[in-house]
Design brief:
alpha/beta; Spore Coat Polysaccharide Biosynthesis Protein SpsA, Chain A; nine-stranded mixed sheet
Length: 318
């Protein structure tokens, strides 16, 4: 039966109001769901005011771990298992499938199903390199602290506990790094020296896998995608952090497990060392002034000479 013109106007008004309420609820709750009762409501007027109940935000984890993966799906279960085994448990994990041609996405979904009690999510994107993948993962996460981890590397069980404690107890420290345990084609331990901001532009002093405050990533504007995808994006990131006055601290202990292989990004990057360092200098012209380069080179040379003389004197005593 045909509606009276006034009824049609009221009906259309109700539909419009329902759409407005729906959009307002999505905005208020971040599109995380809203009461169906509002959508079933037939308002008494076109501009009826309704109370909108905000949904409490989800828990914000202390740490967000970001694992980019490209052609390393076979390593991913080991890397994720080392995260799940952490003694510190207030974390979420984002796996970034960087347009990988292997079965990275399938492996990631299987890991999400294997650890249902953990917050693990998958982000898929077109291939853009590790810097772009890390930026995508960090942007989609919410943790107060950020930890990048490559798919072929791993963490000792107390990594997060120790590094989080460092940042929590020292508000002036923005980056916490650890000593390293190499495994794979080479087994050794590497003790990292004390943080010296003056030397960071001259040498990549600590690993990419260091815990840092989200404010560092925001201030540096993320990892530079101008650096070639074959390495040194972490060094460029640390230079940017030091430029902005952020400080780092060493957490003693071999807590980061770095895989050594013929295809390690670090080895590939060293083959293009001169080209990559030129790109870093171009990104940070204020830091790499000529006189600073000379001073840093002289300092590093004196340090190397001292080590050589110390070794010579030690042998003489023997």
């Amino acid at each position: 039966m045909a509606r009276h013109p006034r009824e049609r106007v009221r009906y259309l008004s109700a539909l419009i109001s329902r759409c407005v309420v729906s959009s307002h609820m999505k905005e208020a709750t971040g599109d995380r769901g809203y009461s169906k009762g509002y959508l079933d409501l037939i308002p008494s007027g076109a501009h009826q005011m309704l109370p909108i109940a905000r949904v409490r935000d989800e828990h914000v984890p202390t740490v967000s771990i970001i694992i980019p993966c490209y052609k390393q799906a076979h390593f991913l279960p080991e890397s994720v298992a080392s995260v799940v085994a952490q003694t510190f448990t207030d974390w979420d994990l984002t796996i970034v499938d960087d347009g990988s041609p292997d079965h990275t996405a399938a492996v990631a979904w299987s890991l999400i199903a294997r650890y249902p009690e953990r917050i693990i999510r998958l982000v898929r994107k077109k291939n853009g390199g590790v810097a772009s993948a890390r930026n995508s993962g960090i942007a989609s996460s919410r943790g107060r602290y950020v930890l990048p981890l490559d798919a072929d590397d791993a963490l000792a069980t107390s990594f997060l506990e120790r590094t989080v404690e460092c940042l929590e107890d020292n508000c002036h420290i923005a980056i916490a790094y650890t000593d390293q345990e190499w495994f794979g084609e080479e087994d050794r331990t590497v003790k990292i020296g004390k943080f010296n901001p003056f030397l960071v532009p001259a040498e990549n002093l600590f690993a990419y896998c260091s815990l840092y405050r989200r404010e560092v990533w925001e201030a540096v504007n993320g990892y530079s995608t101008l650096i070639c995808v074959d390495g040194y994006e972490d060094w460029d990131f640390w230079v940017g952090a030091v430029e902005r006055g952020f400080k780092a601290a060493r957490v003693p202990g071999f807590l980061f497990r770095y895989r050594i292989s013929t295809m390690s990004r670090d080895k590939v990057a060293k083959q293009s060392h001169l080209r990559l360092t030129r790109e870093i200098r171009a990104n940070h012209p204020r830091t790499y002034r000529p006189w600073l380069r000379v001073i840093r080179a002289a300092f590093c040379g004196a340090k190397a000479l001292w080590r050589m003389l110390s070794g010579f004197l030690l042998k003489s005593d023997l």
